[in-house]
Design goal:
globular; mainly alpha; Leucine-rich Repeat Variant; two-stranded antiparallel ribbon
């Protein structure tokens, strides 16, 4: 995909395409992050894949959300071996997707919730907060 210069086209499809086509392009990008070297992941980030993946987090399809979260997590994991790249990837995630990832902690889908929490705990030093429902139905957080 990288050698064929397909990444910009896939990102363009995700950014503005029909959802069914965009999710196929997302799968291709996420798959590239899964086995990609840090250098390949850097190229994906520089091409704009994080904002594209962030766009897919806001959909209502939990499988698509999971694939986007996995791609973001893969990039952050690959970037850990290169401090400069990690800063770039972290900055992009913070700028474009951090709020969306935090919002997915409220997902009713256990897998989406767990992956969002994993990203926040691993890459953003988020604290685990347990929630407890009070008798009047109000949810309060406990540390």
């Amino acid at each position: 995909m990288i050698d064929a210069d397909a990444i910009p086209a896939l990102i363009s499809i995700i950014q503005g395409g029909d959802f069914d086509i965009a999710k196929e392009a997302l799968w291709a990008i996420s798959n590239a992050t899964s086995g990609g070297s840090p250098q390949q992941c850097r190229m994906l980030v520089e091409a704009g894949c994080i904002p594209a993946m962030d766009r897919m987090l806001s959909g209502h399809d939990p499988r698509v959300q999971t694939v986007a979260l996995e791609g973001i997590n893969n990039i952050l994991n690959a970037a850990k071996s290169d401090e400069e790249f990690y800063k770039i990837a972290l900055e992009l995630v913070e700028e474009h997707a951090l709020e969306d990832i935090e919002g997915l902690q409220a997902s009713p889908q256990q897998g989406v919730y767990e992956l969002a929490l994993k990203i926040l705990e691993t890459h953003f030093d988020a604290e685990v907060v347990d929630e407890e429902e009070t008798p009047d139905g109000v949810v309060k957080a406990e540390e």
